[in-house]
Structure formats: C-alpha cells, structure tokens
Design a protein that fits this description.
By secondary structure, this protein is α+β, with helices and mostly antiparallel strands. Helices cover about 40% and strands about 20% of the residues. The strands form five sheets. Strands 6-5-4-7-8-10-9-11-13-12 form a ten-stranded mixed sheet, sandwiched between helices. Strands 15, 19, 20, 22 and 23 form a five-stranded antiparallel sheet that branches. The longest helix is centred in the C-terminal third of the chain and has 41 residues. The radius of gyration is 30 Å and the shape is globular. The chain starts with 6 loop residues before the first strand and ends in a 9-residue tail after the last helix.
Length: about 625
C-alpha cells in the first residue's frame, strides 16, 4: 500500500482502474463508502491514495493496482506540480545511470526499479515522460508527434546538424533521426533535463542547455543545417526593450506584439548559408499589420520559401489554424528565388506536400498550381500593402469537377427553397410620421449601454474575437485574444461596424466572444428595447466616410435613431428584421453555391464530361 501522504485525482483513479472519468464520477454518486476528498477543490477534488487503493481492491474494481500507476503516484507524492518536473527528470536520469537519488523518495525509486526490471529502463523512462506531458498538457503545448514528423521531413533528409531553440520536452529534435548532432535550448531547467532524456531514448546525439534563447543564447556562434522550432506564441515579455539593437534583427526590429518574428530571425541567425528553418507559427503572424515590414524584407531577400496552412486544432493550446513557415538562409550569391510555395495540408496529405516541397526546393522558380492545395506564387505578387502570406488567400479553391455537379445542383436548389421560406412577410402601408428617438437619449435613460473598443492586436490565444470582417462577411469569429481589458459580448448585444458608407450589424446570440477592434457594442435593456428592432434601424443609419484605418470607420451613435414605439410593436419589427438577416445570410450561401455549380457546368461542358440538355 502507498504512503499516507499520497493523493490522487479523479483522472488518476480512472487510470488506476482502467475506466473513464465518467465512471469515477458515477462511483462517487452510487457508493456511500467511496472515499471522501481530502483536498483539492469542489470541481477538482483529491483523494487519499491508500483509501482509493483499498476501495478499488475491496470492490473488486481491480484485482491488483497496476505497477505503473503505483510508480507514478509515488513520484507525484514527492513534489507539488511546480517541482514535479524536477523529480521526474531525476527519476529518468537515474534510469539512465546518471546521478543519485535526491528528490525521488526511496519507495518511488524501489518501485521504479521494479517496473524497469519488468519492462526495461527505456520503457520506464518513456512512461515517465509521457505521463508528465499528460499531466501538464495545458501548460506544455508540445508538438504532436505526427506534426513533428512532418516538420522533420520538410527540414530534409540530409540534415547533419539541427537546433531547436525552444525545445520543450525535445519532441521535434527526437524526430530528427540521422543527424550528426542536435542542439537544444529550453528556459525551464526541468524540461531541459527531460528533453535530454528524450534525445537519449531516440538515439539522437545532442545536448540541451538551459536558458531563454532570445535573451541569453546558449549556442552563440553555432550555425546548423536546419532549425526546427515550435516557439511560444504571443509572448509580450520576450525582451523587446533590452534587445532593440540586437544584431539578429537583420530583417527589422520585431514589434513588441510579434514575438514570433523574433524567433524567426533567431532561427535564421543560426543557419549556415542555404540552411533551412521549419517553424510552427500562429496563423495571425502571416497577415498581422504590425509585421508587414519584416515579412516584406523576408520576401525580398528570398528567406521565406514556403508557407503551409494546417487545419484547426493541429497545434496544442489553440483551436485555431496554424502555419508552417519554411525559411532559408540566403546564400549570398545574389540569386533570389522568384516564387514562394503556398500549400494547405492535413495528415492525409502530409507526404504529398513534402514531395511537392522537395520538387520546389530543387527548382525554386518552378510554376506549380494545384487549385485548393498548392501553388507557387511569384514573390512580386506578395509584396503589396498587406504582405499577406496566408496560404488560404493564394492557393485558391479546388476546381469544381463535372462529376460533382449533381451534388452542387442539389445544394443550390435546396438553398433556393430555404430562401423562399425565409423571405420576410411584409405588407404595404401608408407612410406615417413616427417620432424618432436618438440612441443618446436611450443611453441617458438607461435603456441602452454603448461601448466602443479601440485598436488592439488579436494574438491568437484566449477568447474568440468578433471583428468587422465577420460582420460584413457573415462568418463566425475565428481569431482569439486574451480577455484582459477587453469588452465581453453578452447574448442579446448588438455589435456595429462601419466601412466607408456601409453599416454592418449583428445581434449576438452566443456567449464567450470579445469585442473586436474599432467596433461598437449596443447593449439594450430587453424590458425596454428589442435587440433586433434596434439592429434593424441602426443598420439603416448613415455611416461617415473616411477614418484612421483604411476602409473602417467609427460608428457614431449620436447620428442613429430608432422609432419611439411600445415594446410589443418593437418585437414585431424585430421579428421582421431577424427574418431579413437570416434571408441575407442564406443569400450569401446561395451565391457561393451557385458559383461553384456554374464552374462545374463550365468545366464539364468544355471537357466533354457533361452534355447540354436535361439528364436522361
């Protein structure tokens, strides 16, 4: 049995019994003798390990407790979450014959030796690494192995030396089999030690040093064939002030909000001429306005060779899409590639993308266009006002095939049916004078609250942000930022954006959104003001021309008015406006569906895959 001080969570109990967490919750409800919590919180309680062991054995839930679980619980007992990495790192080093037990308790070391005798020292080490990563999955943001292998293939088969300046647990470096030497750096000393163990397990010769790579480079003067890196995203405190004159900023001083561009230039500084860096980057880094100058310089110098878009949830810690940037250190012979490879990829197409990348690397001026998948884009086309290097913007849409036309036709016709059903039912009436009420008066009387957001960066983490583009295009919020000092949108709020002389509105019906830059939030008192009634009349308000941001202007609530009507009448108008907004949304979808169907017919008729006239 375990020591008196050991505690376990519901997730731990589930692993011990080989069941899901829902089963543990069910046991707590059904069995009066289930052990009471001894710590934790009401939503995340902890239980005494010895009591849980006795209960599981007494109830016959397990015949005996798995040795691996007993090892892990003893390891966890030795330290709190902040020091757990140190204990796990020491245990893994002991299994490699390095050092002596200091933080690892004797009972834990005894059990670990027993487990290693049964399963092998390497398997025991892998178990410790995997379990530690699992426990700290929200904090570590480790690169999934499938994605790491993809990045390693993009780096190339002929990599002699490789560096990861933010190596975490060493997953990326461990995939670089066949390299002569790997260099790593990690700011967390415990993670650096664990990464060293991972390299040893993978048979990769290398060394991991501790420290902040941007502030204190542990490998000064070292140049390598390849850099592979999944840097921290959206760091604000990356050293902007003290590193302003750093020689690494060959392509421009990274803005304070663009830590990723600091990591990109750090990687390039460690490459030999012609060396390749493969960087996992947040999608926003490809088009954020503050990074335009550096992206432009990278393009002009031929440093960016490929940008590969990945689907949402491919990277841990964010549900948003991410990109892979493949960069090359200019050789200095004066020859700059004329094109950049743009591609989209998912696990099923990783190998195909790698093959296209290899062909492109052999001939960087090669023209390639696979609509919807891959395209080589002339650099001159990318150096515009935005310097937007997002693959989705450049690879286009996959060609509509003639064989898909029946499905496209069915989709379009079904949308037409929905459009007919959504057409608002209104009737003619004589114009009448209705007294109008300015929004300023509604605000003064408490029927309405008006809030406006300033300009700020969307950094890819935290809550979803509703932005002007989502209002005008009718799409869902896709970007994220941290909620500190941001305006939270509540269900029933009306959000307003203005662009040139156009006004876009949305009545928000979901929770968890933040107000995007330069938008206005109108929060009506539902007992006095119907939100759709408000949105409909605001939509017809005049929008000022001009503004400090191209195309986007500030909504002036002083110029907007709504009729002074009883709440019941407001709701009748509100229902009509709600139907109108739904009709417009379906109309946008029908337009896109119709265009795809038309492209399919054109392709089919011109290739002979379709014949004129009705189908037989």
């Amino acid at each position: 049995m375990s020591g008196d001080g050991a505690t376990v969570t519901s997730a731990d109990i589930a692993r011990m019994a080989g069941v899901g967490r829902a089963a543990v919750s069910n046991w707590r409800r059904r069995y009066e003798d289930f052990p009471e919590p001894v710590g934790g919180t009401p939503t995340s309680p902890t239980f005494a390990l010895k009591d849980v062991e006795a209960w599981l054995l007494g109830q016959g839930k397990v015949e005996e407790l798995p040795l691996a679980e007993r090892v892990w619980q003893q390891i966890r007992t030795a330290a709190d979450d902040l020091r757990l990495g140190e204990v796990v790192a020491e245990a893994a080093e002991l299994l490699r014959g390095v050092g002596k037990p200091r933080s690892v308790p004797r009972p834990a070391w005894t059990l670990l030796q027993q487990y290693a005798a049964e399963q092998g020292a390497e398997e025991a080490s892998r178990f410790l690494l995997d379990r530690y990563a699992d426990v700290h999955s929200r904090r570590l943001a480790e690169t999934p192995i499938e994605l790491a292998q993809f990045m390693a293939k993009l780096a190339g088969p002929d990599v002699g030396t490789v560096l990861d300046p933010a190596c975490g647990l060493g997953v990326l470096l461990a995939t670089m089999n066949g390299t002569e030497h790997a260099y790593g750096q990690e700011s967390d000393p415990a993670l650096a030690r664990l990464a060293q163990t991972r390299l040893s397990l993978a048979g990769v010769d290398g060394a991991i040093r501790t420290g902040d790579s941007l502030r204190q480079d542990a490998w000064p003067g070292v140049t390598v064939d390849a850099v592979v890196c999944h840097p921290p995203f959206n760091e604000r405190n990356w050293g902007y002030e003290e590193l302003a004159s750093d020689p690494r900023w060959e392509y421009g001083l990274p803005p304070k909000s663009e830590s990723e561009l600091a990591w990109v230039q750090h990687a390039l500084a460690h490459l030999r001429p012609g060396g390749v860096a493969v960087m996992l980057m947040p999608e926003i880094a490809a088009n954020r306005r503050s990074g335009r100058r550096i992206r432009s310089n990278l393009m002009r110098r031929g440093a960016v060779q490929a940008v590969i878009g990945l689907p949402p949830k491919m990277a841990p810690g964010t549900g948003l899409p991410v990109h892979i940037w493949v960069l090359r250190r200019p050789v200095g012979d004066g020859r700059t590639p004329s094109r950049v490879l743009m591609s989209t990829a998912e696990p099923a197409t990783f190998d195909a993308v790698v093959e296209r990348w290899r062909h492109f690397r052999e001939d960087p001026d090669r023209v390639l266009d696979v609509p919807g998948e891959t395209r080589t884009v002339p650099i001159i086309d990318l150096i515009d006002e935005d310097i937007d290097i997002s693959p989705a913007r450049h690879v286009g849409v996959a060609d509509a095939t003639a064989g898909d036309y029946p499905a496209f036709r069915t989709d379009f016709l079904s949308r037409l049916e929905r459009l007919a059903a959504l057409m608002p039912e209104v009737s003619p009436s004589r114009p009448r004078d209705v007294p109008m009420m300015p929004l300023t008066e509604l605000e003064r009387t408490g029927a309405l609250t008006v809030q406006q957001s300033g300009r700020y960066d969307v950094d890819g983490t935290g809550e979803f942000v509703l932005e002007a583009g989502h209002l005008f295009a009718g799409g869902p919020a896709t970007n994220r930022t941290r909620p500190e000092n941001r305006i939270a949108i509540l269900p029933g709020d009306v959000v307003v954006a203005t662009r040139d002389r156009e006004v876009a509105v949305r009545v928000v019906d979901e929770a968890g959104l933040l107000l995007g830059p330069r938008l206005t939030l109108l929060r009506p008192d539902p007992e006095r003001l119907d939100p759709y009634f408000l949105a409909g009349f605001v939509r017809s308000s005049p929008a000022p021309a001009g503004g400090t941001q191209p195309g986007l202007t500030r909504f002036d609530s002083r110029r907007a008015q709504v009729p002074r009507l009883p709440l019941d009448d407001q709701r009748r108008y509100g229902e009509a406006f709600r139907n109108l907004f739904a009709f417009e949304a379906e109309l946008r979808g029908a337009n896109g569906s119709g265009q795809v169907a038309a492209a399919s017919v054109l392709l089919g008729l011109t290739t002979g895959a379709l014949n004129p006239g009705s189908p037989s």
